[in-house]
Amino acid sequence: MAGWRTIGIIGGMGPAATADFMTRLVVAADAGGDAEHPRILVDCNPHVPDRNAARAGTGPSPGPVLAAMAQGLVAQGAEVLAMPCNAAHGWADAVRAAVAVPFVDMIAAAVAQAQALAPRRVGLLAVGATLDAQLYQDRLSALGIAICECDRRVVQPLVTRIKGGDTGPAVRAAMAAEAARLVAAGADIIIAACTEVPLVLGQTDVAVSLIDATAALVRATVTAARLSA
């Protein structure tokens, strides 16, 4: 389509987070009508091997499945790829090796947004696979920024409940409480480093700046997909 490269979404991790990402892409396109939106191809595959199990060594790697999804999207015409799952970026190299089109790095986008705020310490709300892969810690540490990790024993069950459709008051309150604990521990910004977190946590729930990794990926994807005038 004139004005845009075709966007391919490697999704399904989980489905609600993928739908949230796509909805935000539609809004971010700032289109005046149907014909001004980008073409978006979506592979919403909830059967990608579990990232937490893979990182823990108790399950198969999702890398081959993610690579196959990327290849399928490119074969259908995708010219830019995005993957709205932080933990899956632990296998981003498998995607990059499988295709020649640009892959938008969600972690890099969120870290860049955080860096612009010049934080001293960043609090991470993430699942075990993201934390264990050091996806954010390595990049933030390289910038001289300290990290305060969430309690995965709190966040992981909450994410599981969100994936199951529970976005009610109890889940929202518990996620906000964990964010508050990170702030009390010295975090001057929080990164919602799991795509389920923004489904229950917003800026008004946090006393410091909240970096929404999904929102950061949306902005970076729109930039990568928009053709120069």
| Separation, N- and C-terminal Cα atoms | 13 Å
Determine and state the CATH class of the largest domain. Alpha Beta
The helix count comes to 10
> What share of residues are in beta strands?
5-15%
Whole-number count of domains: 2
| Radius of gyration over C-alpha positions, nearest whole angstrom | 17 Å
Order of helices and strands: EHEHHEHEHEHHEHHEEH
CATH topology of the largest domain: Rossmann fold
Mean pLDDT: 97
Low-confidence spans: pLDDT under 50, at least 5 residues?
Answer: none
- Neighbour order of strands in the largest sheet: 2-1-3-4
Decide which structural class fits the backbone: alpha/beta
Oligomeric composition of the shown chains: single chain
CATH architecture grouping of the largest domain: 3-Layer(aba) Sandwich
Q: Give the biggest beta sheet.
A: 4 strands, parallel
Give helix % range: 40-55%
